[in-house]
Specification:
This protein has helices spanning 4-12, 18-25, 193-200, 220-229, 239-244, 304-307; strands at 36-37, 52-54, 58-62, 71-76, 80-87, 90-94, 100-104, 108-110, 122-125, 129-132, 145-148, 152-155, 166-170, 176-180, 184-185, 213-214, 217-218, 233-234, 248-250, 261-265, 271-279, 282-287, 293-298, 308-314. It has 316 residues and is α+β, with helices and mostly antiparallel strands. A hairpin with a 5-residue loop joins strand 13 and strand 14.
């Protein structure tokens, strides 16, 4: 997990040496990824011993119980989380990747009536964004919710109004809504490396958001975490931890293959950015350098050439 000093340095550029200051200027993140094998791909997993479910489209997880602290990560709608502590209107939660943070309690819904979604009724948002409506019509009313990629909903398969186009869903608070079937999926198939890389290009141009893990805004490790999850591997959030993790193996620059993870920093023990190698000297990543957002860069170009410090390959 990132230290308070590192977080402050990334935001302000203070308390850093010349090399690290360059990284700050290029908007790199210090989040990391830790690998855990799982049988379900393509969505944030439920935390063990979960007692709440996320009731906001994207719920910010703060470092302390204050909106004045920085956002350490996020949890997505329909994701089950574990409650650790309560302080006034704030709740400290743990997500499936063992990341912890403080969230506004109003963004959670207690799982008193059983799990959400109910077994066998899980659907995932497969579009970059989904609108959930109060009735099966896109024109009569504003959407009830706008949800990002990987948000989870509970299907109501026997609803009277279900059609080839529309499906009724149950929201976490018990209300029902309607979504278009083209925006959702029930598939949990794992992607190959080629499929994962093809998927990565769907997110080109999505803005950089510190702590972001959704299609409404990623940061560097939130983006690669999401991609690797499509292969059935859940990654918590710190890039320097990922580079040392037993689930990956070191790769020399000359031996890079598509799908390898790239790490950047002032030196190998000061990793502050990550991306994914595409092949032909290019990699995809989320950065604020040049223009904020998911973009493809050339490893031989500056600043990436001199900031590249390590590469890792996920073990099969």
């Amino acid at each position: 997990m990132r230290s308070t000093e590192n977080r402050y340095a990334v935001w302000t550029g203070s308390h850093v040496s010349g090399g690290l200051r360059a990284l700050v200027l290029y908007g790199m993140c210090a989040m990391a990824l830790v690998f855990t094998q799982t049988n379900t791909a393509s969505a944030q997993l439920p935390a063990s011993h979960a007692d709440y479910v996320v009731a906001e489209p994207v719920l910010d997880m703060f470092a302390t119980p204050s909106a004045d602290s920085d956002v350490s990560s996020q949890a997505l709608y329909g994701t089950a989380v574990a409650r650790l502590e309560q302080k006034g209107e704030w709740t400290q939660i743990r997500t499936a990747d063992d990341y912890t943070g403080w969230v506004r309690s109003s963004g959670l819904y207690a799982l008193t009536a059983g799990p959400y979604p109910a077994p066998g009724k899980r659907v995932k948002v497969a579009a970059l964004s989904l609108n959930a409506y109060r009735e099966p019509d896109v024109t009569k009313h504003a959407p009830l919710l706008r949800l990002p990629w990987e948000a989870i909903l509970e299907a109501v398969p026997d609803a009277a109004g279900n059609t080839e186009r529309w499906l009724q869903v149950k929201l976490v608070d018990g209300r029902t809504a309607w979504v278009q079937r083209g925006d959702i999926t029930t598939a949990t198939d794992l992607l190959s490396i080629d499929q994962m890389l093809a998927l990565s290009h769907r997110f080109l141009g999505i803005t950089y958001t510190w702590g972001g893990v959704s299609s409404f805004g990623f940061d560097c490790s939130g983006f690669t975490q999401m991609l690797i999850r499509q292969r059935g591997i859940e990654m918590p959030r710190d890039a320097d931890v990922q580079a040392k993790w037993s689930g990956v193996t070191a790769v020399e620059r000359k031996d890079l293959k598509p799908g390898d993870l790239l790490f950047f920093g002032s030196k190998p023990d000061k990793i502050t950015h990550t991306g994914m190698y595409l092949g032909n000297g290019e990699f995809i990543h989320d950065t604020t350098h040049g223009r904020p957002g998911v973009q493809v860069s050339k490893l031989a170009d500056e600043p990436w050439n001199h900031l590249f410090v390590a590469a890792r390959r996920v073990k099969e």
